[in-house]
Design brief:
Length: 258
Amino acid sequence: MKETQDEKIRQENEVKPEAADPQCNRGGSSVSAAEKKPAGESSAGQPEKTPSVNDVQQDDSAAEKEEKKEKDKIRDAEEKIALLEKDNAELKDQLLRRAADFDNYRKRMLKEKEETYEYANTNLLQDLLESLDDFNRTADAASTAKDVKSIADGVKMVNNKLVTMLESKYNLVAYGTAGDSFNPDEHQAIGSVQGPVAEPVLKEVYLRGYKLKDRVIRHAKVMVMMPSEAPADVKTDSTDSKNDAAVTDKDSVAEPRK
């Protein structure tokens, strides 16, 4: 009997802690329930997926592809940079060469321009040398010649030859002849007289003018005859009246002598 009572007391003591702490009882029961869940199931009751070998290999291959793409991009960028640096160096070299060529061209043009100014009259002087030789021969002949007319004819011949050469080869044109109309753009008047003319004309030419093609290179120096203020017929009548008065005066002076 005593053993039966002791066993009941012991059972009661084992039950009392669970009744005093029901949360622990529940937690203990939950933990035990969780411990009793089979492996591979989630808390929601769904079975957990364990990654397979294929999945791991696919992830590794994707990472390798991304890394390869990044390396390709870096390599392409480096190649483009190298190409641009090469192009830049070539363009810089071309620029320096062009600058040097232009500087040499500029210096050469300046030198040629200076030479052109210095030796521009070379051809003209070469052509004048022949006329100069003719004048020298004429001067030598004049020192021993006895006929003056032959010397004058020789000088005229040399002059005509020189003028013909200048007119035909260099387009030099002489102008200015008495009786030509006065043109202030071509003639330089050094004096003027009045005369029976309708418009200003050249009365006398002291120095002929010259043109190079259409450009005047020396104006002709001339005496200009200007129109009279009174008409020509009026001037003639007044002159006749003066002559009649002079004749009358002579007659009146001659009568007392008779």
